[in-house]
Structure formats: structure tokens, C-alpha cells
Amino acid sequence: MTVIIHIMSKIIEEIRKELIKNSDEKTRISGERYFKEPVKLHGLKSAVTERIGKEYFVQIRGKQKAEIFGLCEELWKSGYLEEAGIACNWSYYVRRDYKAGDIKVFERWVNDYVTNWASCDTLCNHSVGTLVEMYPEKIADLKEWAKSRGRWMKRASAVSLIVPARKGLFLTDIFEIADILLTDSDDMVQKGYGWMLKASSEAHQKEIYEYVLSKKTVMPRTSLRYAIEKMPKELKTMAMAK
After folding, report:
1. CA torsion, points 196, 201, 203, 204, in degrees to nearest 10?
2. CB-based contacts of 143, cutoff 8 Å, min separation 6
3. 170-180, pLDDT tens digit by residue?
């Protein structure tokens, strides 16, 4: 066990050295402009971070999922956006091994480590969304997330369904989550569930449009604009009319 821990720690150490080596101040400063909240950045373009993550994943491919999740946890703990991105990607790379109970691991990561929309969306769009498609009963967990006090947990409840929504899945559940989040005052939550509705409109334009019209007197304009973004101009005009 001690040998395994040493090897895993060495991988994390090497990844951090590689990230620092490829970082630059200009990219770090530029990256900060995308966030309202403070973020920790090494200063790498996303494509470079993804490449580094893939290169190091080759060294751990074949390891037990629990070991890989443990490495992800160490990356999350740093607080750096790039390391969180690698953790999100690694957790998605082992999706074939997902079990229903892994939703609790992802819930803890959102609750303990997510501090910005980028980490929230990267984890939830891919890892959480895939798990929910594999185990649809876990949507019940997302509905509980929607009732949370935490802004990122609430956003996560919606953005976890972006990819399934585009496939036309879970329409009833999407409406239930939207109802829970409907009048939330946080713009990150408003944009999150508006995006979920927009994704669902790709397969269910009529149903989403009717939902938006039925809620427009109480739905924040931010959410409304997101929800109708992909609709024809005439529908947008009617939906936005006072």
C-alpha cells in the first residue's frame, strides 16, 4: 500500500511540475477575466491542460476506479482550475466502471471543491450526466441538489442534464428541476437551468416553449433568454414580450 501511495503521489507531483512548466502569466491574467469570483490559475490554455491530463492518464489506465478517484481528489484539493479540469476528465475516462453510488462521490466534489462555473460544468456535463443516463433513478439526487443552499450544487442539478436533454431524455424531470430553481435570485443558477431548458428545446421545442410561456411572469429574464435562445425568431419575440 505504501508503494502504491508513493507512486500515485509522484504522478500528482509530476503533473503539477508539467502544468507550471507550461504556464504563463499572460494566460493566467486573461483567464481570470472569465470569472466574477476569485479563481486559482496556473495559467494554461485549456487544450494544453487537456493534453497533459491525457498523457498522464496513460500511466494510470487500468488502475482501479477507486484509485483514480483518489488521484482526482488530490487534484481537486489544490484549488487550481487546471487541476480540477484534469480531475473532471479523469473521472469521465472511467465512465464504463461507474456504479450508481458514485453519484455521492460527485456530490461531495461539488459540495467541497467546486467554486466556479467552469469546474461545475465540466464535472457535471460529462461525468454526472453520463452516470445519470446509466442510472436514471439517480435523477432523484439531482432534485435534492436543486434544493440545496449552495449555488454550485443548485447549478449542478441543472447542468448535469445538459447532454441527456439534447438527446430528448428526462423532459418531466427537467421541468421538475426547473420548477425548484425557477425564482432563484443567483445568476449562476438562473443561467444553469435556462441552459438546461435550452438544451431540451433541441428535441422538445414545443414543450419547452409552452413551459416558458406558462412561467414567464415569474421566470427571471436571464433564464428566459437562455431557454429560448435556439428557437425561431418569432417564438423568441412572443416569449420576450411583456
Report:
1. 110
2. 157, 173, 176, 177, 180
3. 999 999 999 99
